[in-house]
Design brief:
By secondary structure, the protein is α/β, with parallel strands linked by helices. It is built from eight helices and ten strands.
Length: 188
């Protein structure tokens, strides 16, 4: 789904920019966000929108955060791009946080990083997921799950929500601390 690619990108790109613009202070971007595809070629979303990546995964030497978007044809993606599994695992082993949105959890489960851990996703895919990954505990009662450096969101049309999951993704991938005077409940 295009929103699970563009939504998190928009939110992360605004961190350190939007409030600064509103408050008339210099921008202090928290992230250098890039969309990557296996080969750097456009990604065709389910709504037929073409998303042009900035880079290919081979061009990513180091990253703090990988967000795995929701995908409808996960089997086809895995068949055509088996290198995605080792790429995600390698970056996780190098310290990256990995967040999955909805069916992106299938790709994350393929890495083995969820073995013995809990996961969540849209209810329509639970049976398929349980059959394919019995070693992962599926928690449909949870909208979000925090597994340390693995963050999972059930989605259900809220792709931006996983990006802001308790502010953890922002803090985890951010090399600078969040504003010290920030109160999540105040809207500031």
């Amino acid at each position: 789904m295009a929103t699970t690619i563009i939504g998190p990108m928009d939110i992360l790109n605004q961190a350190g920019r939007l409030w600064n613009r509103v408050s008339n202070t210099p921008a202090t971007p928290y992230f250098d966000v890039a969309i990557a595809s296996v080969d750097g070629q456009p990604i065709k979303a389910t709504n037929r929108v073409l998303i042009q990546p900035h880079i290919s995964i081979a061009e990513v030497d180091q990253t703090d955060l990988i967000v795995i978007a929701s995908a409808t044809y996960i089997e086809r993606i895995l068949e055509k791009n088996p290198e995605l599994v080792s790429w995600i695992r390698r970056h996780y082993e190098q310290g990256a946080h990995v967040a999955s949105i909805c069916t992106g959890v299938f790709l994350l489960a393929e890495t083995g990083l969820l073995d013995g851990k809990a996961a969540t996703l849209h209810w329509g895919f639970t049976q398929i997921f349980r059959e394919k990954y019995p070693q992962v505990q599926l928690r449909q009662d949870r909208m979000y799950l925090d597994q340390g450096r693995l963050l999972l969101g059930r989605c259900e049309c809220r792709p931006g929500s996983v990006t802001l999951f308790g502010g953890k993704v922002l803090r985890a991938a951010n090399r600078r601390p969040m504003r010290k005077d920030h109160d999540p409940g105040s809207g500031t």
